[in-house]
Amino acid sequence: MAWNTSDIPNLNGKVAVVTGANGGLGLESAKALAGAGAHVVMAARNQEKAATARSEILAAHPNASLEIVELDLGSFDSVKAAAENIAANHPEIDILINNAGLMAMPERRTVDGYEMQFGVNHLGHWLFTAGLLEPILAADAARVVTVTSTAHLTGRVVDPENVNMEGTYSAWGAYGRAKLANFHFALGLQREFEKHGAKAQSLVAHPGLSHTNLQVHTVEQGGGGRSAPFWAWMAKHTGMPADRGSLPQLRAATDPNAKGGEFYGPRWGNNGAPVRKPILRRDIDEGIERLWLVSERETGAKLDFDGAMEKA
């Protein structure tokens, strides 16, 4: 039998944080986790959509325990405030799904001046995870799941000398780079967990081709070029619905047999049941080294394991 949400173990007493929980894969992940008994912190930028998403979850699971926290991954101040808020209210975090993201948009900058896709998809999540490190390490075997894409296979490792891709920007190139950063972040975080003897685990997942608003927004914004309408059509007519697309990240977050450093995605590449996938990149060491250098330098935040573990 293929793995599905009925295989999620009882999560009563667990705290789960999901970024981008106001729609698409994030909403479906929050719904499934809440349905299994977890208290779910819905971290989202659009508070109106988050409230609507909360109502949808409660309609499916009337006893769901939910909390909405405002999080704009494109603003370091917002990220820090959200992490401080969550950490202050939850001394232990059992699941963190770094799900939110942008895809193939025209060249733009975050509030802090960074290329938007890299800034939101990676730098924001780096800073958010750093701010939640203490409650993650305080939990009994927490899971951090970072969501990538098959586009990570086309991405290039971040250039420390040109973080904003000045003069070289392309919408799909920036997307591939950002999703590769997500991939390297998940694997690098697992190495750090192991290095420091932490019980927490870091995994990576991708949803395949899922029919969400991500493709629609890409077409509307005009950043994806001529291929964007094609992929939007493909997602609508051949892609998986969001509830199925969310299964790889849910399996990575909850399957007792999943292990840190593993990669989950659809069986048939962009479609199918959630299964463990091979790690095909050969630039893991270089990618992690560059990503850590850039992330620490640009956000001003290190993953302070020694300090967090001492407090935990």
Walk me through what this model shows.
- It is a single chain.
- With 312 residues, the protein is an alpha/beta fold.
- It has one domain: NAD(P)-binding Rossmann-like Domain (Rossmann fold).
- 46% of the residues lie in helices and 14% in strands.
- The protein has twelve helices and ten strands.
- The strands form two sheets. It has an eight-stranded mixed sheet, with helices on both faces.
- Helix 2 links the parallel strand 2 and strand 3.
- Helix 1 (24-35) packs parallel to helix 2 and helix 7 (213-221) runs antiparallel to helix 8 (227-238).
- The model is unreliable at 215-220 (pLDDT under 50).
Summarize the helices and strands and which ones pair or pack.
Elements: E1 15-19, H1 24-35, E2 39-44, H2 47-60, E3 65-70, H3 76-89, E4 95-98, H4 116-131, H5 133-138, E5 143-147, H6 171-195, E6 201-205, E7 210-211, H7 213-221, H8 227-238, E8 240-241, H9 242-245, H10 247-254, E9 263-266, E10 274-277, H11 284-299, H12 305-311
Parallel strand pairs: 1-2, 1-4, 2-3, 4-5, 5-6, 6-9, 7-8
Antiparallel strand pairs: 9-10
Helix pairs in contact: 1-2, 3-4, 4-6, 6-11, 7-8
